Queue: 2 jobs
Job 1
Amino acid sequence: MVRGRKITAAVLAAGALALGACGGSGSDDAATTTTKAPAATSTTAGTSSSTTAATASTTTVDEGTTTTAAGGVTTTTESSEGRDTDTSELDTLTPDGDHYGYMAGLEKGTVEGQPVQVLLWDEVELFTGQAAVDAAAEDGQTLETDYYVRNENQTIRHLAVVPDASVTSLDGGGPTPVPSSVDEVWQQQYLFKINVGTVRGVTTISGIEGVYLP
């Protein structure tokens, strides 16, 4: 089975900064999609902020989008028509190579003037074998598996995805990887692995892979 936020893992890869036209189309009509996972929803308007319990959902209206995904992480952004993440707003993720984490949202953006999709990424640590046992013990946890996911810092990073990135998900939550897309996987609750590389100070994702944990 695929575990929830505490014990799921993701595989993702990042590479060259070969960026081309990319992005999704939006709708002017309000729309709400609800999934089964319980989550906390935070909505910000002007200078006021409120938090209530909610199921995972994405609500889009003319003024903005409130997204709850990946085990309860919630982000509120402007609509795809009005919100772009510029190069200067993108985050750096080091070192180059594989990183594990959860999807927390999706935006449109630009890198050096070229349109890209921007994943909102919640980085975690994945331990296996004896390292998992030791890490769990440090956190006062007892393991029933040979892996452990630690998510001490839920800082959300904005990372650009190259247009030709390789993306796979898990077929029905099982061990079989299947071709997918950024538009699909960002809404899934699994832990993912990404492969990243940093060029001219900009970190980009060149590979995204869902990870199966038995």
Job 2
Amino acid sequence: MYIQALQGKEEVLGLKHTLILNTVNNLGNLYANQSKLAEAERIQQPKQPLRRLRQAG
């Protein structure tokens, strides 16, 4: 659900908008809570979060 929200927000707001960064942070926290620490770290790096999500797809 976070990935879908992120993709929709990115289309409307662009990658650098604070709502995009908020959603990326939430997704990273979700991965961390699921013990997917490598994914959490990768997602929360500051460079183009949506591109990284699409590559993980």
